């Protein structure tokens, strides 16, 4: 490619809200410095390596050249590893009953499930936020929106087989994780809790209580943490924990993100390397990481670590690929935005068009924020974005499958669970010495406390309306004005009466 590129170091601002993983060999180089000591109460300052290239005079946050960017990252040290030698020793379990709760979004399994699934989604006050005076309209409004959107959504689910495969895949991941834990002498039970469809998180919690679990590891199946994904599920858990005496006394810990674990990185690199070999000229393929978007306000106003974690995750994967002599150019963009609020940029669809205009002929899409196939991979990426790419001049299209039950990935999840067991119920968030190769350690309430007060002031992912002089209000007021003008014109033409006729304007055009 002929783009002129330069590398810029950009500090993540505001600082990450959650404690980040630390190891004795954490990344450092003369141009990329990560503080080795910081207050856990304030979170770890994080830097991210960002490159930019010029597109017709404007700076666009996209293409990286593997050869250039690695000059720095090759000096960054080892990945955060799973410490296989330490994990091999059986943790002291005693009489405790260990449980692992996998959290995910959920999806309709049949076309008949689509409308009630959408109702559950829009009934969430974190998705559609109403003024306090109108909170009683939450469910009626969710019912209205779900009924209106259901026909279009059904078309999408019909195109991928009549429903989402997310539950089947997540159940299979749970079964394989349980096997991996048993193989390591940890007889844990693994549960699946979905946010908006069966099995709901509430159902999983009831089963956990019936099984008399005494120690619980909460593991969201989102590699990178975001307020809108893992955070939403954790807020639900928080409310459930507060209301139940059994749960109050049950020790637990949360692994909110695990994007930098060695097993995950290697599993992603394996899939990318395999798909590249399907192209006639693998070295000429642009690797296109497409991540689920989040509202920009979550990152800029609340310090959501999602963007910084996503960029670091992509850097780690590309570093692993370069170790395998794969130095393809690559880019990161964000998909699945909805509503009038601004989301993380660059957008996937805009970037695909720009890549086609710049002469890219081969593109390999990588669904970086998803570990299971669902509507956003099978329909949005495989159908909509592929069609857009071909129309934009890209001739060869490929797509890396989601991880699913890939053995390296499952084994690493098992290691993460085992590493967290000594800290279940412990206040490891406030103990620097306790921090090890997994991210986190802390209860649901401890993790949520870092942003809960700010969250209530943030716009939700989907806004129906806002009061006051806001961008959303301007958008909807503009649409209302356009509709009113259209109605007036129709009345003028059909009745021959109105202001335009009275002022002598309309007859001039007849």
UniProtKB/TrEMBL annotation:
Protein name: Ferrochelatase
Pathway annotation from the record: Porphyrin-containing compound metabolism; protoheme biosynthesis; protoheme from protoporphyrin-IX: step 1/1
Keyword line: Chloroplast, Heme biosynthesis, Iron, Lyase, Plastid, Porphyrin biosynthesis
Pfam families: Ferrochelatase
Species per Swiss-Prot/TrEMBL record: Oldenlandia corymbosa var. corymbosa
EC number(s) on file: 4.98.1.1
NCBIfam families reported for this sequence: hemH
Entry's transmembrane regions: none
């Amino acid at each position: 490619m002929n783009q002129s590129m330069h590398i810029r170091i950009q500090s993540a601002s505001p600082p990450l809200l959650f404690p980040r993983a630390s190891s004795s060999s954490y990344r450092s180089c003369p141009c990329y410095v990560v503080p080795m000591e910081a207050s856990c109460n304030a979170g770890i300052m994080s830097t991210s390596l960002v490159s930019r290239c010029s597109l017709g005079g404007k700076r666009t946050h996209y293409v990286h050249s593997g050869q250039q960017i690695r000059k720095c990252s090759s000096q960054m040290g080892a990945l955060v590893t799973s410490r296989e030698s330490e994990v091999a020793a059986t943790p002291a379990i005693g009489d405790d009953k260990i449980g692992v709760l996998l959290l995910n979004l959920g999806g309709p399994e049949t076309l008949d499930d689509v409308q009630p699934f959408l109702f559950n989604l829009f009934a969430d006050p974190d998705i559609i936020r109403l003024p306090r005076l109108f909170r009683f309209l939450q469910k009626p409004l969710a019912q209205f929106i779900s009924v209106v959107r259901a026909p279009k959504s059904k078309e999408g689910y019909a195109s991928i087989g009549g429903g989402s495969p997310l539950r089947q895949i997540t159940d299979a991941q749970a079964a394989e994780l349980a096997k991996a834990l048993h193989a390591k002498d940890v007889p844990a039970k693994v549960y699946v809790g979905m946010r908006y469809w069966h099995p709901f998180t509430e159902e999983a919690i009831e089963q956990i209580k019936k099984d008399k679990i005494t120690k619980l590891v909460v593991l969201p199946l989102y590699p990178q943490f975001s307020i809108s994904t893992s955070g939403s599920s954790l807020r639900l858990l928080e409310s459930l924990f507060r209301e139940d005496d059994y749960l109050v006394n049950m020790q637990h810990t949360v692994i909110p993100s695990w994007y930098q674990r060695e097993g995950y990185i290697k599993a992603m690199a394996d899939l990318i390397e395999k798909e590249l070999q399907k192209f006639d000229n693998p070295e000429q393929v642009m690797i296109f990481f497409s991540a689920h978007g989040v509202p920009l306000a979550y990152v800029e106003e609340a310090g959501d670590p999602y963007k910084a974690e996503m960029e670091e995750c992509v850097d780690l994967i590309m570093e692993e690929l370069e170790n395998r002599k794969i130095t393809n150019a690559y880019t990161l963009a964000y998909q699945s935005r909805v509503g009038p609020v601004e989301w993380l940029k660059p957008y996937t669809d805009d970037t695909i068009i720009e890549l086609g205009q710049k002469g890219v002929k081969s593109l390999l899409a990588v669904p970086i924020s998803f570990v299971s196939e669902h509507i956003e991979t099978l329909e949005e990426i495989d159908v909509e974005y592929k069609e857009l790419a071909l129309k934009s001049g890209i001739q060869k299209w490929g797509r890396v499958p989601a991880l699913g039950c890939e053995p390296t990935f499952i084994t690493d999840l098992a290691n993460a669970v085992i590493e967290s067991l000594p800290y279940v119920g412990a206040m490891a968030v406030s103990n620097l010495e306790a921090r090890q190769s997994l991210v986190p350690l802390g209860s649901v309430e401890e993790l949520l406390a870092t942003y809960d007060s700010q969250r209530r002031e943030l716009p939700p992912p989907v806004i129906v309306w806002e009061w006051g002089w806001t961008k959303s209000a301007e958008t909807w007021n503009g649409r209302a004005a356009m509709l009113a003008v259209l109605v007036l014109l129709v009345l003028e033409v059909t009745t021959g009466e109105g202001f335009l006729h009275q002022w002598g304007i309309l007859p001039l055009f007849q």
